[in-house]
Write a structure and sequence with these properties.
mainly alpha; about 0% strand; 4 helices; about 90 residues
Length: about 90
């Protein structure tokens, strides 16, 4: 006999623990708090990170050759997307 978690056939059924519990007020803010994440992203040295720069060169189709400031300025949205992708990995 298979056990199903489908409760659509039960009127007013609720799934226990469907939402995550709220943190206790005594807990310290985590490093993943949005303010900490934004500050870390804003201060990350993307220009000095050789792995990021290598990936950015590949995105602009000239691996091994650094991306110029002109390319960065002309493709700001692409660069921001690359930074977000790299930072969250």
């Amino acid at each position: 006999m298979e056990i199903s978690s489908d409760t659509s056939h039960i009127p007013n059924a609720t799934v226990p623990f469907a939402s995550s519990p709220k943190p206790c007020s005594s807990q310290q803010p985590s490093r993943t708090h949005p303010d900490h994440v934004y500050a870390a992203f804003a201060s990350y040295p993307f220009n000095a990170d050789p792995e990021f720069q290598s990936g950015l060169s590949a995105i602009f189709n000239h691996p091994g050759t650094p991306v110029s400031q002109t390319e960065i300025d002309q493709n700001e949205e692409t660069c921001v997307q690359a930074k977000c992708f790299y930072f969250t990995r």
